[in-house]
Amino acid sequence: MEHFTIMVMPQGIKIDAYEDQILLKALRDAGLRADAPCGGAGTCGKCKVIANGQEVLSCMALVDCDMTVVLPGGGEI
User: In what order do the strands lie in the sheet with 3-9?
Assistant: First the structure.
């Protein structure tokens, strides 16, 4: 299984993720607070981030390449 690097901004933290891992899980596994009151069902929109320049729900986005992820509100989701 391939591994990718996620650069988390604005903190500048690099985290490792494996191919097809859900982005929300990768962020949580790295110790980042990630709000998803819908339980990752993609219905609340609280886990929205900018990944490689596109707004995505982190609970629905799969890691399939190296990414730069910008967290809303200065760094906590």
Answer: 13-18, 3-9, 67-70, 48-51, 54-57
How much is the pTM? Answer: 0.90
Q: Is 61 helix (H, G, I), strand (E, B) or coil?
A: coil
Give per-10-residue mean pLDDT for the chain (77 aa).
94 95 95 86 93 96 97 70
Give the whole-angstrom CA distance, residue 57 versus residue 49: 6
- For residue 24, give the H/E element and its range: helix 23-29
φ, ψ of residue 25 in degrees (nearest 5): -65, -40
Q: What angle do CA 75, 69, 43 make, to 5 degrees?
A: 85
Strands 48-51 and 13-18: what pairing?
unpaired
